[in-house]
Amino acid sequence: MSMTGGAGRGLRRVILGATTAWLLAFTLLPMLIVVAVSLSEPRLGAPPFTPLFEWGAGFWPIFNGHITSYVTIASDSLYVAAFVSSLRIAATSAFITLLIAYPMAYAIARASARARFALLMLVILPFWTSFLIRTYAWTGLLNTNGPINNTLINLGVVSEPLTLLHTEFAVHLGIVYSYLPFMVLPIYAVLERMDWSLIEAAQDLGSRPYRAFVRVTLPLSLPGVFAGWLLVFIPALGEFIIPDLLGGPDTLMLGRVLWTEFFNNRDWPLASALAVVLLMTVLLSALLLVKALQRREAA
Amino acid sequence: MMANGGAGETPVIRIEGVAKSFGGVPAVAGVSLDIARGEFFCLVGASGSGKTTLLRLVAGFETPDQGRVLIDGEDMSSRPPYARPVNMMFQSYALFPHLTVAENVAFGLEEERRPRSEIRERVFAALAMFDMGAFGARKPHQLSGGQRQRVALARALVKNPKILLLDEPLGALDKKLRERAQLELVALRERVGITFVMVTHDQEEAMSMASRIALMRDGALCQVGTPRELYDAPQSRFAADFFGVANLFGGRVTEAGAAVDCAEARATLAVADACTQGADVTVMLRPEQIALSKHAPAAPNVLTGTLGNVVFLGNAYVCHVVLDSGKAVQARLSPADMAKLGALATGDRVHVSWEPSAARVLTS
To answer: Of A60, A81, A269, B45, which sits most exposed with the smallest number of CB within 10 A?
Structure first.
């Protein structure tokens, strides 16, 4: 790998510099702007918020920040409710995803090499169609006179069509369906690398298959479970499209509230403050998971 | 069937006509074998000979297509691995990486739902037995290869199994450590008194450790016997070649139990083993049974040739000789015999000779 002389070092510096510049320009800077907007006040005009710094008589600009938006979020029960309900929906749907994804990942990891490739392709295949279109397709499927209800009525399971669309159930379904591959792949990656002689060793020492799973397979696959959980829970927490297309009018999720504040109420500072709170929640939960994982590995 | 454990006593392992194939390819083909209590039994063979599959059939990780395995007279056919009175030491040791050394050793006892105090005592004793008492809180990845091997042994033996199965237990150790571990394993078996069944591809390892050896080839037993029997009286060319070095001459019996005409040696060799007239056989000679001399000795079997390389091994010399027939043979001489011969140089004419009783006549 060692590139000889100054040319190699120069190239390395260029790549590192470009990476840093990219992250600064497209990750850190936009986040700082969002934080800045969240600290300003809404007004009519363009942009629809007051500048954070104003030039007065003195040498230094006057800091014109307010925490009004954050106070509003904390005091208005709507936002708190949206926050709690987002956490709840993201957590339950991530959990359901885990329950479905784990056996899938396990089956793929234990399949023959050829079947494994085919199954992995099938898991990844939905990515080739737009996420928006796939979510929209569910509205047709879940409709009162859609294929699911028609089948259920024809089979005589129900006499009246069920209300499936625009419910919290549909939101869960949408999240589980869309994010399943993100849970399957990291768990599969861990299970595929696992030394199966460990399971035999457990059985040799007297574990029934179920016990061997609980005592050996499951603990060893936890890094994959954590990774999958992060990849599903975090985007689900801020999900907008799925609750908007499949959720009911009473399905409160932060993504939707954020949208309303931005585009309907044109309260950019409040929307930005919501985004910052969401970001902090995500960061905190990710940090806690990573810390838990590190503690496990260090022990 | 070769029962070795004395008349009347049930063998601790009885393998009855066991066959197992994977995807149509036979791995073990009709093996019957008795292993007596307290043996250090070695299964040897090249890779793919079925020795590991046979071990796994005893452990219960594979179920036989045909035949059955009995342990202590009890049919194991419907017993899964977790309900068999055997424990296995895996080639990779298979220590649980997420558990400490002490937790690894306690694992099997916890699965038996033993009381906490008993588990603590037995784990302590097992670790102490392998000088690992100070390492109980470590994780496997913090141990050296030799330490891991001892933890794996402790974990398997703490359950007091009737049989310890060892799958290439020394394969992961370096040469120096391996030689010491061989002696330790033999001593360990004597101390704990149970039956050890070990799989190895290393014939020297099998010879130096086993009380009995089963040589496997293509899923079948080639020969079963003590190390001495396998070395001194191999029953086939394959067995002769597998254990140690063998000089092999193919030929046809011209006088039953007395003479074999060997084209490879361009001579008729005198033998003492039983053989029938007209049979195609192989005459086998171990290198140490061949004498070397500058002048033709008065012996029944004398062949002439040219001396090739002489390799000094410290306690012996290995002389490579190309016979006039073109066949290459090896003779192993002690330093004293070598000194008696006097100065020899590559290219010198030499005579190789041996007693008829030293040669084995192999019929397959």
So the answer is: A60
**Which CATH number characterizes residue B37's domain?**
3.40.50.300
Domain boundary among B212, B237, B262: B237
Q: What is the mean pLDDT of each run of 10 residues along chain B (364 residues)?
A: 55 96 94 96 94 96 96 94 96 95 97 96 96 95 94 96 95 86 93 96 94 96 96 93 93 90 88 89 94 89 93 93 93 92 88 92 88
DSSP chain A: -PPPHHHHHHHHHHHHHHHHHHHIIIIIHHHHHHHHHHTS-B-SSSSSB--SEE--SSSSPEE----HHHHHHHH-HHHHHHHHHHHHHHHHHHHHHHHHHHHHHHHHHHS-HHHHHHHHHHHHGGGGS-HHHHHHHHHHHHSTTSHHHHHHHHTTS-SS----TTSHHHHHHHHHHHHHHHHHHHHHHHHHHS-THHHHHHHHTT--HHHHIIIIIHHHHHHHHHHHHHHHHHHHHT--HHHHHHS-TT---HHHHHHIIIIIS--HHHHHHHHHHHHHHHHHHHHHHHHHHHHHHH-
**Amino acid, single-letter form, for residue A287:** L
Q: Give the pair of three-digit tokens for residue A178.
A: 């869309």
Chain B contact for A216, CB < 8 A? yes
Report chain B residues touching chain A, CB-CB < 8 A.
59, 61, 80-83, 86-88, 90-92, 94-98, 107-108, 111-112, 155-156, 159
| Tally of domains within chain B | 2
Same-domain check for residues B29 and B96: yes
Same domain, B232 and B255: no
Are B181 and B145 contained in the same domain?
Answer: yes
pTM, two decimals, is: 0.84
Fold of A76-266: MetI-like fold (1.10.3720)
* Full domain range(s) for residue B321: 245-362
Which of A112, A196, A205, A218 should we substitute to test contact with B (largest number of B Cβ atoms within 10 Å)? A205
Domain definitions of chain A by residue range: 76-266
